[in-house]
Structure formats: structure tokens, C-alpha cells
Amino acid sequence: MTRSHDTPENTDDRLPPDKADEASTRVDDQVGDVAIDADRGRRRGVIAAVVAGVLVVALAVTTGFTASWYVNDRSREHLDAQYIDTARQGVLNVISVSADRADRDVDRILASATGDFRADFASRSKDFVEVVKQMKVTSRGTVNSVGIESSDDHEATLLVSATSLVTNGAGAQEDPRVWRLRVKLQHDDDGILIEKVDFAI
Q1: Chain-centre distance of CA 73, in angstroms?
Q2: Model pTM?
Q3: 195 CB contacts (<8 Å, ≥6 apart)?
Q4: Weakest mean pLDDT among 63-67, 122-126, 180-184
Q5: Cα(140)–Cα(164) distance, rounded to whole angstroms?
């Protein structure tokens, strides 16, 4: 008996050249797309980081500017309040005098004065005290309103409206006197002092 041997088929898994090129192209395209997507992702990340950094810097600058503005504004408000207090008290010192304490009244006025106003009042202070005592003057003053006409870090001009009730040996019994004064203040290392007092029209 003759045995027959089946010859196995010769199978070749390799694709034809044209198909192989097409498949390789598809793979290359897919790899390229993945690389492009990855690159785009990295770029987006970089751009997002840059934008975030810019926003942080802008916010810091804006916050710093706002804080600086707030501090400066608060400092100006505080200084203007000091100007108002000084003008109010200065006018009260001038229009509130008494024969019983005339010397102390003069000292108080001079303590808050400077410049021409202080020099002028000091030169007349002796006569002022004598007249107040001889006429038995008593004057009680009240400041009705104070307004800032102009101000900066070194000086200010304010308008002061005040009233005083005057009693003296000539017969006045709490007679009202109305005052409208323009007060110029000077601000330096010695504090805030009255430099000039004029009647306001």
C-alpha cells in the first residue's frame, strides 16, 4: 500500500506591497495625530500657566494700588480732621476770654499760633490783658461750623462760623457777636498751628 502524504499549503501572512504601504501610512497618520494632540495639550498647558501668571501679577498690582489708594485716602481724611479740630479750637481760644484768667487765655492762644499771627498777637498781648481786666470782659464762644476751603500736606485754609456771648463792665450782658473767619493753618514737625486769622467776607 502506498501511503500518500498531504503537502501543507504554503500560507504567507504578509500583505501585498500596496496593502502594506497603505497600512503603514495609516499607522503613521495615527501616530502623528497622537503626537499633534500631545503637543497641543502641552501648548494649552503652557498658555494656561502663562495666563494664570499674568492674572496673578495683575491682581497683585491692582490690590497693591487699591491698598495704597485706601491708605493715602485715609491719611488725608485724618489730616483734614486734624485741620478742622485745630481751627475750631483756635477760634474758640480767641473768642472765649475772661478777666479772671486773661493771662492764661493769652498763653493758650499763643501756644496754638505761629508766624505773623503769633508775632502780632504776642506784641499786643499785654494791652489785650489789661483791657480785658479793666473792662471785666467775659466772652463765651461757640463754633457753629467749620469748612475746609483748601488743604494739602503742609497747609490748609478753613472758614469758621462762630458766635460769642459778651458780658463787660460797659453794660453788655451776653450780647451776641457773630464771627465769620478765615483761618490759615500750617502743618510741620511742630504740629498744626494757626498762621493767620482774617475776617471772611
Answers
A1: 2
A2: 0.64
A3: 113, 114, 115, 116, 117, 155, 184, 185, 186
A4: 63-67
A5: 5
Residue 103's alpha-carbon distances to 39, 100, 106, 132, in angstroms, are 90, 9, 5, 10
Q: 156 φ, ψ to 5°? A: -155, 150
Question: Do 156 and 148 meet the contact criterion of CB atoms below 8 Å apart?
Answer: yes
Report the sign of the C-alpha dihedral through residues 166, 172, 176, 181, in that order: negative
Q: Hey, what domains does the chain have and what are their CATH numbers?
A: 65-199 (3.10.450.230)
118-135 burial string, b = 16+ CB within 10 Å, else e? Answer: beebeeebeebbeebeee
H or E segment and range at residue 24 = helix 17-95
